[in-house]
Design brief:
The protein has 916 residues and is an alpha/beta fold. The chain has 27 helices and 29 strands. The strands form seven sheets. Strands 6, 7, 8, 9, 10, 11 and 12 form a seven-stranded mixed sheet that branches. Strands 14-13-17-16-15 form a five-stranded antiparallel sheet. The protein has a five-stranded mixed sheet with strand order 19-21-22-24-23.
Length: 916
């Protein structure tokens, strides 16, 4: 027993030593070496991106700021110097007016990195965040006579100053909506307002507040309390450049604690008295703690084992030997930890970067080592005591157990904790086919369990251990005997107190199980028959319900169609009859004819929808692909609906791609029909607000959308509205006009073009419909723009010279592209003043396309001057001002004609043809 205890102690403590030793060595394994912290891909990215733009906060000292010479300074600036040295690069620092300007530049991707900012939900939408490299608490600054506001909860209904755009604004507005937030341009402005009493308090990070209070000499302010917030400053990088974020994170990780502390000590002066600052004193404290724990362990051992050693003198030598091993190991471990922390062994042995000494860590590790050692030592001596007592009890009762064990009447076994069969009775010998000599102390219980039941047996065992008396102690399994025969067995299990063994009785139920299986088999067949009958009945009920519902919906559809068709027919017949009356006036006759024309168009639209839905359902539609620009189609659709939309609704469209990148090969007519149906519906169900439509490029698909602020759609109706009958389910309560086929047609056309359609909606807030179409690249040699121009150009505009007055490069390129198939000579002016000069310089200019809103001199002034000298020179306004009064103003000031942006090539050529 002495040898076993001694060996056990050596194994455990050797294992513990290896763990602590390996952790100490591994602590420096992941310290990055200069030049090796980046992957090949990351180094290649740095070579290709020479200019990395960084936008620091200009007024955030001592974190970061620009000094009077315009040099980037502060804590973050020192960190970025280290990053530049490690990566061998130079950042380009962009100086902005304030934090809001920085945020706006980041959103527009005009900068690549924000040097110090806290992660918020809003910023995470457009930036990636590195690991935090600085952390400061948020504090409340008040006047010295207002220190009662020492927490945010006490500022309810009070005024709190926060620098605009800082993370405190989002935190406080979310958690304390009752606080009145007053945004200020910078920290100095906020502190001044607190000092003057304009606001009750200000929230700021601690070093910023201390810096400005001391710098500005504001003597009536103090730090009233600490908030639950703190700023964890990270480096932010553009979300579309994850590799840059990876580079920054790796470089920050390679900065040692010593380097960080040196930077902080240079900028932040702590207003606290340093009681202990001596390396020798800290080491002395660590050694005193070690001595204290060694003495404590020894006295504790003596106290608990005094009587034990007297009663068991044979065990005295073994116990002292174990104590010596324990104390020696833990003293050695603690000495190793202390040596590693002070001399940095990985640095000494392997040449890794030396880390700074952390005396708090030394003390903590020393305490941890000796606490663990004390617990393990107590466990060992208790285990010795229990083992001696247990062995005595087992010897005393072994004969008693054996007598009872042999006469249980069933095959009975005792199993040790390691699954070895400790004892078996004679019945189990007969049951298994093995003798006791072949089983006891040799065979494991699992050798008699069928392979497929081993997992289940293990589960029962674990559950019984965890739940003890609550878990069932009787279960079934397949028993395998010496001849590999399988038997159905019920086993009954009980725990043997104190020695962690299990006693189990086995009962053979093979014959009983066979009878049960036969009965279960016939019962399952009856259950299956019953389920089959049930499902058939359910199918009949569902079919009947669908038939009734279909009949109802068809009736509703026909009723609605009858109403929609009869309404325009009634107007046609009625006004046609009235036209027979020769006495009606010419003005009334004109109104009647226009009404008949409108009704005919409505009736034709209904017939077209019926024909279209019929073609879709019968598979008779065909794709007519052609090349066109999506942006041209959007302009046409916008022009059509903008002329008829209600004045309370704002119509907008958004095209993601530049004009020349929006060419596509697709069935333009069907795409136009889908968009027109969705926009028409959006306008119909929107009383006021906006209707927006646009598209975005998603991989190999183009995702179109139509958004409105209308009445919205209930969640349960989102799928039903695309079914043609469902749309008119409540036709007797109908408020809005229409036959209800638009969405069904749109869904069918989208599916035909290889896409899908869906929507998002909220009642009384609006809906947003989406649909996707596969993107097919247009044939550049047969573009739609060229086809349109070929149809619209006239011979008489060839060999003419046109002055295009346009300050926007893209708009000028668009005009030039539209007229590229002609032999027109172009000259350009960027503003009105230059346009006047160009007309005077080039007397052979035949026509002027004049923008209105331009720098230096606008289009109105330029036209007025030009017309004073050349009255006959045609000047056409090309502008985004689309109101009728804008057109009238332009004509009065001398313009010959007026084109509203956006416009098509055909429109432009038609207008030019009038004057050339």
């Amino acid at each position: 027993m002495e040898l076993a205890i001694n060996l056990k102690g050596k194994v455990i403590f050797s294992f513990l030593f290896l763990i602590i030793f390996s952790q100490s060595l591994m602590a420096d394994k992941f310290v990055y070496k200069d030049g090796q912290i980046l992957s090949t891909e990351e180094r290649e990215w740095l070579k290709q991106n020479k200019i990395i733009r960084v936008a620091p906060d200009p007024s955030y000292p001592p974190i970061e700021f620009f000094d009077k010479n315009g040099k980037y300074s502060g804590i973050s600036a020192d960190f970025f110097k280290i990053i530049e040295e490690k990566l061998n690069i130079k950042f380009k620092y962009i100086q902005c007016e304030n934090w809001n300007e920085i945020i706006n530049k980041a959103k527009r991707r005009e900068v690549d990195i924000l040097s110090a900012a806290t992660q918020t939900k809003e910023r995470s939408e457009y930036m990636l965040f590195s690991i935090p490299y600085l952390k400061f608490p948020g504090v409340i600054i008040t006047r010295k006579n207002s220190t009662k506001y020492n927490s945010l909860s006490k500022l309810k209904n009070k005024k709190l100053a926060i620098v605009s755009g800082y993370c405190w604004q989002e935190f406080v507005s979310n958690d304390y909506p009752e606080i009145q937030i007053l945004t200020v341009n910078n920290a100095v402005n906020g502190l001044e307002q607190v000092s003057l009493g304009s606001v009750d308090a200000m929230i700021s990070s601690l070093p910023i507040a201390i810096h400005y209070i001391e710098k500005e000499g504001i003597t009536n302010l103090s730090v009233a309390g600490k908030t639950e917030y703190s700023i964890n400053l990270s480096v932010l990088s553009r979300k579309d450049q994850p590799i840059l974020n990876s580079i920054i994170e790796k470089t920050l990780s390679s900065i040692s604690e010593k380097e960080k502390n040196e930077i902080l000590n240079d900028w932040i002066a702590l207003n606290t008295k340093i009681i202990l600052n001596s390396d020798l004193l800290n080491i002395l404290i660590a050694l005193l703690l070690q001595a204290f724990f060694i003495i404590s362990v020894f006295l504790l051992w003596r106290y608990h084992n005094k009587n034990f050693l007297i009663k068991h003198p044979k065990e005295k030598e073994a116990n002292y030997r174990i104590l010596l091993i324990i104390v020696s190991l833990f003293i050695f471990l603690d000495f190793f930890i202390l040596t590693n922390e002070i001399f940095d062994l990985p640095h000494f042995l392997f040449g890794t970067k030396k880390t700074s000494i952390n005396y708090g860590e030394i003390i903590f590790e020393s305490i941890l080592v000796y606490v663990v050692g004390t617990i393990i030592m107590i466990y060992f001596y208790k285990n010795i005591r229990f083992r001696i007592k247990m062995e005595a009890e087992l010897l005393e009762n072994e004969e008693k157990y054996r007598s009872v064990f042999e006469n249980t009447g069933t095959a009975t076994i005792i199993v040790d904790n390691d699954m070895i069969l400790n004892m078996v009775n004679s019945e189990f010998e007969r049951f298994s086919g093995f003798s006791k000599k072949e089983i006891e102390g040799i065979k494991k219980w699992t050798e008699f369990v069928a392979e497929e039941d081993l997992g289940k047996m293990k589960t029962y065992y674990l559950k019984r251990k965890q739940k003890k008396n609550k878990q069932s102690k009787e279960y079934e399994f397949y028993f395998v005997d010496k001849e590999k025969n399988r038997k159905n067995i019920i086993i009954q299990v009980a725990e043997i107190p104190k020695n962690n063994q299990v006693i189990a009785s086995l009962i053979d139920i093979t014959d009983l199980k066979y009878c049960q299986n036969e009965i279960k088999k016939y019962n399952n067949e009856l259950v299956l028959l019953n389920k089959e009958c049930f499902f058939q009945n359910e199918e009949l009920i569902v079919s009947k319900r669908k038939a009734e519902e279909s009949d109802y919906l068809k009736t509703a559809f026909l009723t609605n169609m009858s109403h929609e068709i009869r309404t325009p027919m009634n107007a046609i017949f009625g006004f046609a009859e009235m036209l027979k009356d020769t006495s009606i006036s010419s003005s009334d006759r004109k109104i009647f004819i226009e009404t008949i024309e409108t009704s005919c168009k409505n009736l034709l639209s209904i017939i077209n929808d019926l024909v279209e839905i019929s073609k879709i359902e019968t598979g008779q539609i065909k794709e007519k692909s052609n090349n066109f620009y999506i942006n041209d189609l959007f302009r046409e659709i916008f022009g059509h609906f903008n002329s008829i939309v209600n004045e309370n609704i704002e119509l907008n469209y958004f095209a993601e791609l530049p004009y020349y990148d929006s060419s596509i090969n697709m069935d333009k007519e069907k795409l136009n029909q889908i968009l027109s149906n969705l926009i028409s519906n959006a306008i119909k169900f929107t009383k006021k607000g906006h209707v927006n439509f646009g598209y975005t490029l998603k991989s190999n698909f183009i995702e179109f959308y139509v958004e409105d602020t209308g009445i919205g759609i209930k969640p349960q109706e989102k799928e039903l509205i695309f079914e043609r009958f469902r749309q008119v389910e409540n036709y007797t309560k109908k408020v809005y006009q229409g036959n209800g086929l638009g969405l069904a047609i749109s869904k069918g056309l989208v599916a035909f073009l290889g896409g899908r359609i869906w929507l998002e909606s909220e009642i009384n807030k609006g809906s947003k419909f989406y649909f996707t179409i596969p993107k097919k690249q247009a044939d550049q040699n047969n573009s739609q723009a060229n086809q349109i121009l070929a149809k619209g150009k006239a011979e008489k505009i060839n060999n003419k010279k046109i002055l295009v007055v346009e300050d926007n490069d893209l708009n000028y390129m668009y005009v030039e592209a539209l007229l590229s198939e002609t032999n027109i000579t172009f000259v350009r002016a960027n503003d009105g003043k230059k346009a006047v000069y160009m007309v005077e310089t080039f007397p052979d200019i035949d026509l002027v396309l004049m923008d209105i809103k331009m720098p230096i001199m606008n289009g109105f002034e330029a036209t007025k001057i030009i017309k004073q000298h050349k009255k006959d020179l045609p000047i056409i306004a090309v502008t985004a001002y689309a109101l009728s009064e804008d057109r009238d103003k332009a004509i009065k000031l001398g313009f010959d004609n007026y084109i509203v942006k956006p416009f098509s090539g055909k429109q432009l050529i038609n207008v030019i043809n009038k004057y050339l």
